[in-house]
Every structure is written in structure tokens, then in C-alpha cells.
Amino acid sequence: MGAQVSKQAERRKNVSTEMKALADLKQSSGSDFPGSDYRPADRKNWMLGLDPGKLVIEKIVWPGTHDSATNKIGIPCITRPFAQCQSLSIYRQLVRGARVVDIRVQEDRRVCHGILLTYSVDVVINDVKKFLSETQSEVIVLEIRTEFGHDDPPEFDKYLEDQLGEYLIPQDDSVFGKTIAELLPKRVICVWKPRKSPQPQHGSPLWSAGYLKDNWIDTDLPSTKFDSNMKHLSQQPPVNSRKFFYRVENTATPQADNPILCVKPVTNRIHGYARLFIIECLSKGYVDRLQIFSTDFIDEDFVDACVGLTQARIEGKL
After folding, report:
1. Tens of pLDDT along 15-49?
2. Facing residues of 190 across strands?
3. 21-315 — its CATH code?
4. pTM of this prediction?
């Protein structure tokens, strides 16, 4: 018992030390970067606002959400706090400015996070289609994967094609070098990541797992996550010399051996440092590698940081 108490005390000390390290770095690094003062007039249509004829897919800094369809996961006030990573519906996230969503499903097509369940993936698809029907030039990266420990939903690729067919941008490396205007009216890059079923092939309406990569760092220590994100990003090719999306997740994850197991207070340890990450990318020379930037509990400031950096790229300010 004494050893466990000592271990928990050490964990709290480590968290405190790492939070102070990030706060100190933020204070010394300032808050400005090219595009940092840009605010889209309409976040629902921010791609339209930046000009679809200028927005090349590979140059966009895509604001994304982690575990996107968890706003109603589990049982309220009982299991939900341990798995909820977003408080908004998929539709509201897209309206706020998110353009990459991360969906996990199980064999019956219900969305899940580990063992906890929520609504059918139909809810997600309907939200996506509602958003697309209300906009004209917004492109979405829709990542759907079979959750770890679960089987693939039967004939799920056919389901996705039937539901989104008119919007789907076919799998093709040339897409990365095209502008949004050149892709319209197609507006969804749907990455399907099954566990056992065949991967989508070149030319398919769906994209295979290798087109959206990341390095998941499972930690509740904010500076450790921040530094690990930077290290892995530094090892990627610049966006103009690769034919895949690379994602950085500005999140922290509760750990089983820590007394704080709810998502929000843990991920909040790093949540406010997205702009700092961009500033550090610039100072270290890695900003040309940053592409998909995801978060828990997405807010307007996170979206504005991504859109502002995108605006700086297309205006030649970087």
C-alpha cells in the first residue's frame, strides 16, 4: 500500500513538472507565427474563404478531432467521462471548422471506444451528408477504422460507397497536388481501415490505411507527448514530397495507474498548447511537415490556428 501511495505521489509530481515545462516554454516563445492573427469570417466555410483555387490538398493544415464520435459514448456521468473525447456531434464539429474526423466502429456498425458503445455509424454519415449539403467547397477527410479487438462490419466498404458515392474522391496519389477547385464536386477523402477485410485498392472510391499515418503516443504526461509529437514529425518528409497524410494529435490519455482516469482533465494538460506546437515547429524547421493536427474537445482557437497557418502557406508567408 505504501509503495502504491509513493508511486502516485511521484506521478503527480511528474505531471506538475511537465505542465510547468510547457507553461514556461509558452511564456518564452511568444504567441506569434505567420497567420496567427488570421480569423476566418465563417468557420463553416473556411476553405471557401481561403479560395478553393489556391488550396492545394497537401498544403492544407487540416484541423481534426480525435475519437470524434464520442459525444454520447457510454452512460452519462458514469462511464462517459472515461471515454468522451468530444462534446459536439460530428455535424457541429464540421461547422466549427474540423475537416478530419476519426471514427471507430465494431462489427454491428455501432461506433465504439474500447468496450464502450454509442450510436450507429449511420448518425455519423448523416451528419457528414448534412454538412456537405449546406456547403459547396469544404473537403473532409473521413477516417473510419475497425476498433481494436473487434471484427470488421460485413460489407462495410460497399456501405460507405453506397452512402457517400457522389462525394467520394477516388484513391489516387495525384490528389495531393491538386487544388480543391480541381476536385469539386467530389469532397470526401474516405480512409477505410479494416482489420481483416481487404484494403481499398488504387482507383477505389475509398482510401487504404497507408494514406493516413500517425505515431500514437499513449501518455498522460503533457511535455512527453509534446516532445514525442515533435520528434516523430521531424522524421516525416515535407508535405510536398510525400503521398500520404501524417497526423499529429495534441492530446493526452488517462493511464490506468493514475488516480485521474477521466479524459477531459488529463487531455486539458496539453490542450492549450496547439499554437505553441506550431511555433516550435517553425523554430525547429519542421513546419513544412505539419499537415493533420488533431485535438480532443475542439474549439475555435484550435481551428483558427490551423486555418491561419494554411492561409500563410498559400500566401507564401512561410
Report:
1. 999 999 999 999 999 989 999 999 999 999 999 99
2. 142
3. 3.20.20.190
4. 0.96
